[in-house]
Amino acid sequence: MPCAPAWRGTKLRIVLDTNVVLSALLWxxxxxxxxxxxxxxxxxxxxxxxILLEELAGVxxxxxxxxxxxxxxxxxxxxxxxxxxxxxxxTPIATPRAVPxxxxxxxxxxxxxxxxxxxxxxxxxxxxDLAIHHAIRILRPAEVLALINAPA
Length: 152
Known about the structure:
single chain; alpha/beta; Rossmann fold; six-stranded mixed beta sheet
């Protein structure tokens, strides 16, 4: 993939959209594998913001996710704390108006800019439709896994 050489030898900086984090925490598909890979690799750094963590807390406390968490014998608070520990917290200076159809998604963009991220990972078409913003690539979880696992 064309992006691979741009970060090889440096730290890949990633922001996960809340939908990806939720999938990673509750299911075992590509978002889960991506989060596990990020946690294991020293050359990849995960970033989030207070607003994104608050959004995640709200989503985890909804009835559907709460039932799924109960299967793991874990509370929303524990799951949130575990994720927050894995992420480096950034504080965006501003929240640019970047996602035309969903202003809440602008917080993902703001966190990525504050983190000087290379990649935003999302499953949300509103963000994915941007494809790139301020030189930050916007990709699906499986695409990022393929990028990370591509031969150097």
